[in-house]
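Hi support team,

I submitted a single chain yesterday and got back a structure, but I'm not sure I'm reading the token output correctly. Could someone confirm the output below corresponds to the sequence I sent? I've pasted both exactly as they appear in my results page.

Thanks,
R.
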Amino acid sequence: MQKKYLSIYEEIARQIQEGHYPAKTILPSENEFADMYQTSRETIRKALNLLAQNGFIQKIRGKGSLVLDLKRHQFPISGLISFKELAENMGGTAKTTVEEFVLEQAGNNIGRELNVEIDEMAWKVKRVRHIDEERVILDKDFIVERHVPGLSRHKCENSIFEYIEKELEKKISFAKKEFTVEEPNAEDQELLDMEGFHAIVIVKNYIYFDDATLFQYTESRHRPDKFRFVDFARRMDTQNI
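Hi R., thanks for writing in. Yes, this is the structure output for that exact sequence:
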């Protein structure tokens, strides 16, 4: 016989998928669910924890359980896609605002990430990505100026990739990516809509031209409820290994 918290989890998950509990609404409280299902708060708590683990809800301290948008936008882990390209495939509205745009020496930290001398000139660009009028991504780009000359605030607001490929006629080939999950810092709290969210997904991108020249390092900080990071994997032939 199935445990009661599992059957409650399955029923609430189905109701969320069918729109009975719409995205961005707060579920009934543990006490209300306990009365509804004639069970204990502990049983309800187990069901809600399972809903959170499987991406249906986000528990917000002092408010309850927020229903998440199940139609999250997909970012391919092994692919290279610009925010503009992603936005063109979205059903909602998307825009970019440039918070900072300067040309300065790379310095120790960024010089190390870009594998250049500390006095190499680099564009520093800080952009906030808006989806459906919510600020959900903070992109911090560092780009070697001699590889990408003539960059402007307007071009950053539109698409850096588009400028490189269409105006500079350079081929962007591949990227190395690193993923971590951390607590939001003060800058995240200031520039993104982070109320109720206690984690941020950080994607570090090292982006190369087709001649294997590293020209851009980006730290992309994502609010976790809006995106799914997906990949396609194929098992290798192990007979010859």
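A quick pointer for reading it: The chain has a mean pLDDT of 86. Let us know if anything else looks off.

Best,
Support desk
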